[in-house]
Amino acid sequence: MHLNELKKAGLSDNEAKVYLAALELGEASVYRIAKKSGVKRTTTYLAVENLKEKGLISSYLRDSTAVFYAENPKKLLDILDDKKRALSRILPELLAFTNLIDKKPKIRYFEGKEAYKEVFGDILKHSENEMLGTFNERFWDWEKYFTSHFMPERKNKKIWSRILFKDNLQLRDLAQSGNVPFSQIKLVPSDKFNIEIEMVIYGKNKVGYVSYDEEIAVIIESQKIHDTQKSFFETIWEMLPDK
To answer: For the domain 106-239, what is the CATH superfamily, name and number?
Structure first.
């Protein structure tokens, strides 16, 4: 038990064993500490030197022989305090690096026949913003998923959507049927804007892409990409008449 706590305090396994052995022995040679701790003598020498640097073991000469003894365990608190102070000094710089990392786009890539579920499942986690999407007739191949799961869940979570449908007989009928709840739909002439993949803009900074034929899906988490794609969507939306 003490061994695990000492390791949590920052000591290595061998350092913890050697320190506990030194505490129990009071004053002892490296040989006795090694025997008591069960650590090889050569390794014990290294552990003792490390513990001396940390201020947890001290030594003196007795008849030309080095004798070692453990310092008060309260020194461990001093070590932890020193580490905390050191970390506090460099924390602003570390946080600056984190901010740089956070600004990089996060990309998740999925493959397989049901890769699209990764995108649409993620959409359902974000009910704070409306969903903007472009869809073609290929999504109807997965009608069961959308009609029995995605659309009811989207309705329950009150995720409003604006959708651009590729204009064909199948999707025109769907758009006019009223079977796509919480949605406003506009039809895009295929000769002007051919929708071969599906794109969904959702959450505060996410864009999802689905290619059914290629069986791939991508989720990009980027404020700049999200905002740019949204501006494209809004421009096209404003150019189209209501269905």
So the answer is: Endonuclease Chain A (3.30.870.10)
